[in-house]
Give the backbone structure.
Amino acid sequence: MTLRLPGRYYRLYPTIDSPLGHAEDDLELGLDDTALLIVDVYGAGFDDDVPEGLDGIYEVDEATRDMVRNKIRPVKDAARAIGLPTVYLTNYLSPGIDEGNEWRNMSQRVCDVDVLTAWKPPTPILEHSKVIAPDDDDVLIRKQYYSGFHETELDSALRNRGVRNLVVVGFDSRVCLGTTVTDALYRNYRVVVLRDCVSTFEFPETREGGWANFMAIRHIECNVGYTSTAEDFRAACATVDVA
């Protein structure tokens, strides 16, 4: 049985100055070799009651809250209805992080966040909101750095389940999600990112027009795989007869 999903990509030929632009393939994703990958949709800020401690870079804006509740959650429900496995990636404070760690030092100077204290559990920063928390039969992979494949069991978890295709949602389209899908390509997975289920932080210079996220999606369509939408994915799932 297959899931038929339109996959958008971007054509750079015949020349960089005059590219043909977007095109679509009619993708056929096997139900037995496809998984939903939810990247870094953590934080206790997506439920009705938002706890204290989610401020600064961890503050949840309304657009992101709406995306999680009204796009990503329904995508997960649609995937579950047709039997696709769901794999979560989430950050945690690994034993490999100490005061001399360069990633920790970068976080301090760029984000004013010391993960050695801010990420020490329990913390609402890394807890899952009830609306999108993993179910008992979902796969949860914890990572320290951006890519979900770096020093984790993600590749083994996918290959042990025969996964060949990844439908991907979550954050951040330039950083954690972006590096994870790039590493997925390196490992020969076919990637389909649901482009209305991802976002990135915008700089003051890119905020109007959402250009940082635009470029992240364009990069994926040019250099990694395909994109589609939550509506297309849910519609494709609705046509699958699993009775």
Summary: The beta strands are 2-14, 19-30, 34-39, 86-91, 139-143, 165-171, 190-199, 226-228.
